[in-house]
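2024-03-11 09:14:02 INFO worker-7 job=invfold-0412 stage=load source=structure_tokens
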């Protein structure tokens, strides 16, 4: 086996007889590696000139993610580095907060950052609403046959009408929090004497009328982002047995760990077995 590390060095690895390779490249990297290795929907592999080792149509499908919406505020008071903290839970929405946490700072504000991110001259608070679970699913497709090229991923956040209603609920929850007296410490003096107002990074702020479903829905569509809980994409045939996939005639079934409880699982499991619809995948151990 040949692979390239993060520094660009190539390495050759020899497997012992009957040795196996465990693919654990994450929810995006794992289905990409399978397809680049010839395991996946044959029409997608043929398109990029990849020899088909096994036609497995489900690879790259059922990509799911928990969408979130965040507002980033410049704070007039000094804030410590704080990773994501859950501050409230409703039936459908998690309200979370973080401070000085770089992944939640808008890209257009990168000019504030010193070279190599050695410091950040602003104190930034982020308030975000995260949907309790994905309601729709998307897909992952190869962008080329080059392993260094990122694949094309689509999560279809707004595929289900019910999902948009939950997003609207989350935005309104954030609006209620911003109106509380506890948030006054994050406001700056306003344009008129006695006024105080928020300083939004990148001028991303809530619509003036949060009771308007269309305005709130458009705001969420424009600002939706990932919470990095994506999963799926490696759905394969169920080949579990008492020996955890042991085959016969010098072959072993390629299997996966069955972590998920059901097909609608909203947890971050990268691979899930499905009902058998075609012969299971097998790889020669020779």
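2024-03-11 09:14:09 INFO worker-7 stage=emit residues=286
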């Amino acid at each position: 086996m040949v692979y390239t590390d993060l520094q660009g060095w190539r390495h050759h690895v020899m497997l012992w007889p009957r040795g196996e390779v465990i693919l654990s490249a994450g929810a995006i990297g794992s289905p990409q590696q399978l397809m680049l290795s010839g395991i996946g929907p044959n029409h997608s592999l043929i398109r990029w000139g990849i020899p088909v080792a096994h036609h497995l149509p489900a690879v790259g499908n059922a990509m799911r993610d928990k969408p979130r919406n965040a507002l980033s505020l410049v704070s007039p008071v000094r804030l410590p580095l704080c990773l994501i903290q859950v501050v409230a839970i409703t039936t459908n929405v998690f309200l979370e907060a973080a401070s000085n946490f770089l992944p939640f700072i808008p890209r257009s504000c990168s000019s504030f950052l010193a070279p190599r991110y050695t410091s950040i001259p602003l104190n930034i608070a982020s308030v975000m609403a995260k949907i309790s679970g994905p309601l729709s699913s998307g897909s992952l497709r190869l962008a080329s046959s080059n392993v260094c090229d990122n694949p094309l991923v689509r999560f279809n956040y707004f595929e289900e009408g019910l999902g948009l209603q939950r997003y609207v609920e989350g935005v309104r929850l954030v609006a209620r929090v911003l109106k509380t007296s506890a948030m006054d410490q994050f406001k700056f003096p306003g344009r008129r004497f006695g006024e105080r107002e928020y300083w939004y990074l990148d001028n991303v702020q809530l619509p003036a009328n949060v009771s308007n479903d269309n305005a709130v829905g458009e705001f969420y569509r424009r600002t939706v982002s990932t919470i990095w809980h994506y999963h799926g994409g490696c759905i394969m045939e169920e080949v579990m047995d008492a020996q955890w996939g042991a085959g016969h005639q010098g072959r072993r079934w390629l299997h996966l760990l069955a972590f998920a409880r059901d097909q609608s699982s909203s947890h971050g499991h990268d691979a899930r077995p499905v009902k058998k619809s075609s012969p299971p995948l097998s790889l020669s151990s020779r």
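2024-03-11 09:14:09 INFO worker-7 stage=report msg="The chain has two domains: 1-64+230-286, 67-133+156-226."
2024-03-11 09:14:10 INFO worker-7 job finished
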